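Whether sequence alone determines local backbone shape is best considered at the level of individual chains. Part of our work consisted of pairing the sequence of a single chain with a tokenised description of its backbone. This step matters because it turns folding into a mapping between discrete strings. For completeness, the protein is quoted in full, as a sequence line and a line of structure tokens:

_____
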Amino acid sequence: MSAIVFSTRPAANSGSALRRQHPHGRSRDTHHPGSLFGWVVQEIEKYDGHTLTRRESGERPKHLIHRAAVPPGSVLFLGLISLAGFIAFVPLYVQDGVDVSAGLIFAIYGVLILAVRVFGARVPDQLGGRLTASLALSLIAAGTATMALWQSVAGLVVGTVVFAGGMSLMYPALLLLALHGVNDSERASVVGTFSSFFDASQGLGAFICGVVVAVVGSDSGAFTAGAVCALAGLIVLRARGGAMRTSAATA
């Protein structure tokens, strides 16, 4: 009868972690599923050694917040405050004398967002991220201002159409600016930092618009706040042009 001896020491041949012993003293290596145990131990030792080498070489971990994403992310935050106000206050706005279904307004917005994203997907690449973002913020400000000043069904519909056009272009244009000139190894960090500004805007945007509504005493104040924040985002974008610049050729 032969016996099987397990060896957990790294061997020259990782497949020979099992050795079959014969009664006459002869032995030969054999491949067996059990040899995976020795191979796993060997690979863990290699990984630990590689990690230790990296730490000893002084390699620093990646930053939690990537600086390249902060300027375009700040513009995104300001531009998306209007979206938080739009979602939160349109249902209340239509109950105060505007005879239209909030579901219809949201449907118009959703269809236009999808249409522009599909058929205008190349617009940021063709115009450049900075110009496209400027156009998007201008449309957002114009759309929300229309909803605030033209308090009727027609004003709400027209404002929603203009607002959706700008909102559909803003995110991809600013993301293009954030990723411009970034190494492949840092792109995930940039996208993560940039996306966090979206989350912050939706968490704080409704609160900001609510404060304005409470001060002015009308739900239309939410649209006014959105328009002002979009204009502020446009000012930041134009003022930080050196830090956020892509052209149609390089985009």
